[in-house]
Amino acid sequence: MKIAVSCANQRQVSGPATLCPNFWVYDTDQFQIISKTLIHLDEKELLGKIKGTLSQQETHALSDIGCVISRNLGEGLNTKLHDSDIKTMSTNILDPDTAVLSYLKYAHQIKV
């Protein structure tokens, strides 16, 4: 699963995700982080500016993610992501890697 974490300053989990230009995108497997890549969105690609659902935006840099983690998602973005079958997690964890590992642990517990 690919997980996108909003990180405006590229170091800490930030919010709101709707206006965040930088996301770390993690490739994960079960409880592990396989890799991470920094994605920079231009003004028209910001999650709060796209029309329709993210899954309809085939060329968007985040179109293939399965989860968004942020300090603040907002109700509108949360609904838009859920409409695209993208899971969300709001967190107070500042370290992006720790936030992803926390989500993976939580997601695995739900499936059991």
Number of helix segments?
2
* Helix/strand order, N-terminal first: EEEEHEH
Strands in their spatial order, largest beta sheet: 3-2-1-4-5
Helix content: 10-25%
| Cα-based radius of gyration, to the nearest Å | 13 Å
Q: Gap between N and C termini, in Å?
A: 17 Å
CATH architecture call: 2-Layer Sandwich
Average residue pLDDT:
91
Number of domains: 1
Number of β-strand runs: 5
Largest beta-sheet characterization: 5 strands, mixed
Poorly predicted regions are none
β-strand amount: 25-35%
Concise structural overview:
The protein is 22% helix and 27% strand. With 112 residues, the chain is of the alpha/beta class.
Which short descriptors sum up this protein?
single chain, 112 residues, alpha/beta, Nucleotidyltransferase, domain 5, five-stranded mixed beta sheet, 2 helices, 22% helix, globular, DiNase_FeMo-co_biosyn_sf
Notes on the protein architecture:
The chain has a single domain, classed as 2-Layer Sandwich (Nucleotidyltransferase, domain 5). The protein is an alpha/beta fold. The mean pLDDT is 91. The chain is built from 2 helices and 5 strands, in the order ββββαβα. It is 22% helix and 27% strand. Strands 3-2-1-4-5 form a 5-stranded mixed β-sheet, sandwiched between helices.
